[in-house]
Write a structure and sequence with these properties.
two-stranded antiparallel sheet; 37% helix
Amino acid sequence: MKIMSKTNRMWLLLSLLLLVLILNGCGGLQADNILPGNENVEQSRSETLEVSMADAGNETAYLPEQEITIWRGEVSLYGLLQIPELEQGEKIPLVILCHGFMSGHNEPVLSEIAEQLIQEKTAVLRFDFNGHGKSSGEMADMTVSNEIEDTIAVLEYAKKLEYVSEIVIAGHSQGGVVAGMAAGKRPEDVSALVLLAPAAVLKENALNGTVLGVEFDPEQLPDSIGVFGQEIGRGYLEDAQTLPIWEESKKFTGPVCIINGQEDEIVPVSVGERYHELYPGSELHVLDGTGHTFSGSTEDVAAIVTEFVKSIGKTER
């Protein structure tokens, strides 16, 4: 049997010491992913992830990006909460972004808006409506009315975040209709509203028997119709035909920014103009050379939204 030399023993000891140091470092990785002050992170049925700043002391307390779940009854809504770095006790605006029909929280225009808002120290909460993306439910059960309920549930969540000074709701297409009606239902909780090609034509279309070019009998509604390979239920059609879009939306009296594409073939500029008339003092921006999704103009749209939100923050504070 070989006897280990003194030199080899020394190298063995050094190797073991190095291994211990590495293992201790790895053990700390999980804690390093949560920035100082976030020790108190609670999970509950109503809010899967909520950051508590109560014990933050003199250190910054935030998670820069959080995947959250917000519950509305039995429906779980996936959300992505993005927060810029904050000083202790600092309060900032938060913008809730509502996506369009059969889309999701990662719509290109919404992603660009989120990116620019974060750079201007504004928090952003994007989410998937019921039956979409990572949220629960079936597309066939989705209606504009239950998307409004989704948005109000998200609004309730946002109100509890201690670093939020004011809340803005922004929505694209059908999400714009939802945003306007949700703000009308809860005007005391919403500081401002942003409407991106708000698809208020959906009611007229449903009364005329069409959804995105798919025709049906508006007097004898089918159990469902197929739109882009997805099943849209009778409940959606009934709901769309009876929505009090303008009556509910006008209950919001705060600042409003409206953006339409000049080449939009789904939501004509006349709809944006009607919203502009509905909201005295609102801003209306019509972008040349762009359509319903704002393809090729997402940076311009985001810049307009960001400047609008910045102006609201100055007014509120």
